[in-house]
Amino acid sequence: MVNYYELLEISSDATSDEIKRAFRRRAKHIHPDLGNNSEGALERMRDLLKAYEVLMDPYKREVYNTQHRAIFGVSNFDYREFLKERTQDHQSQSKLIFFDLLHHREQDALRLYETLVEQKNFDLSKHLDREDFMDCAFLLAEEFEQEENFESAFNLLKVIAEYELEKPYFKHFFEEVLVRLRNLINAVSGKLSFATQVDYIEELLSLGISPKENAFYLKKLSELYASEHDRSRAQYYLKEALKLDNSLSGIKKLKQSLGI
């Protein structure tokens, strides 16, 4: 008997919506037409479709649960505990981070992620598919920013931006990523060293996201150099910003102080 709950990576009390989401997520990994050429992929996809059909039907699910309890000897498959036990498997631990973020265990997710990144060669993006990684990274960045762990938040958001520019995924929601990056750059003002702030901005400028975004970051460079009393560099960066966006907001006082 195939353990449908384990196959879908859900608990046996999962809701219909959770089953649907799990089915879509697992299908991306298993379906032969989506690039899975491994042996047995077609059979696993058939099992996945059968699991979806059975668990979405209340009567079939009740019959299956009776058999499930008799064969596996448990009444409730706990997906989270299943992942937690696989401590040496980075893929399982990465899935646990994502699972906890989606189930109001944000602190558990952050602490596990920090533990893993301290280990040599751990890379979250290697253990989740591209879309799941981007979603997971965004949620992690939100939590890290709230804790004022700006370095972790910045690094995650920057990778999301790089991925999005390489191949769109967030599409209409990418603006939210860009807003969070701008807010983070504003938030680190006075909290991180001048050199670190400059490094962050220059890294974002190197991505070439858009003229509008570059104008914002050039303005921030101008403000930073003005705060360091480097008038010539401050003037230069503000002029470059205005070349890209002549309607740039929030620069009236800066222009006056720099004589532009």
TrEMBL record:
Residues 3-68 form the J domain. Coiled coil: none annotated. SMART domains: DnaJ. This is J domain-containing protein. It comes from Spirochaeta lutea.
